[in-house]
Amino acid sequence: MAAQRAVALCADDYGLSMGVSLGILEALDAGRLTAVSALTNVDRWPAMGRELARRRHDADIGVHFNLTLGRPLANMPKFAPGGVFPPLREVIRAAMRGKLPMEEIRAEIDRQIDRFYAVMSRAPDHLDGHQHVHALPGVRTALFDALEKRGLTGEKLWLRDAGDRMHRIVIRGSDMRKALAVRAIGRGYRREAVARGFLLNEGFAGFSDFDPQSDYAAQFETYLRAPGERHLVMCHPGRVDEDLRAQDPVTVTREQELAFLLSPRFEEVLLVRSAALGRLRREA
Question: Topology of 5-277 in CATH?
Answer without folding.
Answer: TIM Barrel (3.20.20)
